[in-house]
Every structure is written in C-alpha cells, then in structure tokens.
Amino acid sequence: MMDSEADGGLIRSGTPVFRRTALALAAAGFSTFAVLYAVQPLLPIYADDFGVSPAESSLALSLPCALLAVALLVVSPLSEIWGRKRVMLASLFASALLTIVAALVPGWHGFLVLRALTGLTASGLPAVAMAYLAEEMDVQAIGLSMGLLVGGNALGGMSGRLISGVMADHMNWRIGLATIGALALAAALAFWRWLPPSRRFVPRRLAWRDVPGTFGHHFRDAGLPWLFAEAFLLMGGFVCIYNYIGFRLLDPPFSLSQTVIGLIFSVYVAGMVSSPVTGELASRFGRRRVLWVATAIGLAGILMTLSDHILLIIAGVVVATVGFFGAHSVASSWVGRRALRDRAQASSVYLCLYYLGSSVLGTAGGWFFAHSGWNGVVLFVGGLYGLALIIALRLSRLAPLAT
Description:
The chain is mainly alpha-helical. It contains 16 helices and 2 strands.
C-alpha cells in the first residue's frame, strides 16, 4: 500500500502524498501567476516607454486574462480526454517559454501578441488543478489543499510583481520579465517531478457536440451561478486596485520609486496566509458563514485606501488582499464540492468569469482613474464588492445538496 495515505484512493491531509501534491500544485500556481502578473507593476513603465494610456497599458495584463478565460472553456473538456497532469504540464512549460520570448520583443503590438498567447497556454492549469483536487482529495483535505493552491498562486503573483518591479528600477523591465520566465520553467520541472498521477480520474470519450451540455447544467443549479458571479466581481475589483495603485503612488504627494511600489506587492504574503487559514475556517464553520465575512473584509480594505496617509493605504491593500484571497479560496472550493459531475467544466466556468473580471473590469477601472482619480477607482471597486457581499449573504441561505 502506498504510504498508507488514502482511503479508497483519496488523499488525506498530513500524509506524505498530500505534501507532495500540495508542493507540486503550489509550484504550478507560482509559475502560472508569476508569468501572468509580473507585468502589473510595470504598467506605468509601459505607458511611458510605448507611449500608451494607463488603460491601454493595462492590456498587457487584461488581454492574456481575457484569452485565458475563453480558453478555459476548451481546455477543461480536453483534460477529460487527455488527463489532468498532461494538460497542466504542457501549460506550464509553454507559458514559461513564451514569457522569455516576450521579454525580447521590441514593439508594443508584438509584445501584446505574445502576452495573449501566454494567456492561452496558461489556461491549462487553473480549472484542471481544481478538478484534480476535487477528484483526488479526501473531503476533510479539500479545503486546506485548495487554500494551499491559492496560496501558491499568491506566492507567484507576489514574486512576479516584486521581482519585475525591483529589476525594472535597477536594470530594466525586460531582464526582470525574462527572469520570471526562467523561474516559471524551474517550477514546471518541479511540478513534473512531484505531482502524483491521478488515481481516480477516468478518461472519457467526449464528442464535441456534447460539450455545451457539460457546461449548461451547472447554470441550473441553485448555487453555482451565484458563485460564478462572485468570481467575476471579486477578481475584477481586486485587479483594479493593483492595476492603478502604482499610478497613484508614483505621482505626488507620494512620488515613490518603482522599487518601493514593487515591494508593496509583497503584501501578497497576506493572501498566502489567508487562503489556507480561511479554507480551514470554512471546513470548521461552513462556507456559508465564512464567504460573506471574507468579502466584507475585502470591502473594508478597499475603503481604507481612500486615506491620504501612505501607511493607511498600504494597510488597506493588505486588508483587501486578505479578504479577496479568503473569499476566492472559499468560493472556488465550494464550486468543486457543489458540482457533482463535470467538475472540470464547473471549475472552468468559475475561472472563466474570474479572469474575465480581471480583464474587463480591470481595464474599465482605467476609465474611472482617468476621469476621477483614485476616488473614482474606489467608488467603482466598492460597488463591485458591495454587490459581491449581497450575493455572499444570499449564498449563506443556500440549502446544501442532498448527496
């Protein structure tokens, strides 16, 4: 028997195979989110170097997120045929290599094309990883394992932003982005080495004409459409805060350097901690109770950034980060538990709306920033989180599934 770690093939927390799985998926999350979000602190640099507006510079992040969102709807059915690990592995290697190439391209439009392709290839990890955990983890381990996956995402997002921001200030942004690509490549190799093969996955013969039906039935569920809406609102608002906070802090009266702004993104550590902690709290007290509390915390942090004092602004970003990652950890694991079949498709719909929120709302925030400054951004994002809080309170009264 393999490590005596599973009952009926399910992986239990605290076992050697659980630790290997958690490390592998944390490395995968690191790779994917580092290559996606390394450009975020560089948006003011792109606006200057390429002569584009803040909203146009945000396309370096919004475009790959939009392509990733659409591609998720194709990749998740493919994973039902080809297998979870194979799809995730191809995704990690391709997105790392495209990031290295993007660092070498001189023109803005060529750079955007490569960023868009990176979004396409990165789509192979997020929904498939959620489906892998839903299939392989014991019910008592799924909250923690999903939290650790989201924590790895946070580590990648933080490291990508931090490294690219600091290196842009002391060398140039191209060296920083190439470094991120190299680190992502190393993470892909670690994933290949550590992730156990699926033991409960059964390949399916899936006719493409049947694919819409594997998505559609999720929208007839009483809870899943509301969880999908949460993904769109929470991620869209969160990305707006991080997209435009750099523009605010570069200008007077703050006039911070690119290095300091890059260091501010280290508050993602708070997200790395809050994800598994919130996952454990959800397992103990119930997702219905924890989701609305985490959303309310995120809203409070957003409002704190209205202050003109730098310490309160940073504290607000920390609180908003804790709330966002906590809410996302709970909502994403809830999708995995609520979808009784076609889990990869349910996860991909959740993440499609998640990344569409990042793309559409993240760019829309640029309009508010251009017309009303930071107060406009906070008004916009506060409205998104207020709506998300109403939905979370509605979900708190959702009847559990009879299984």
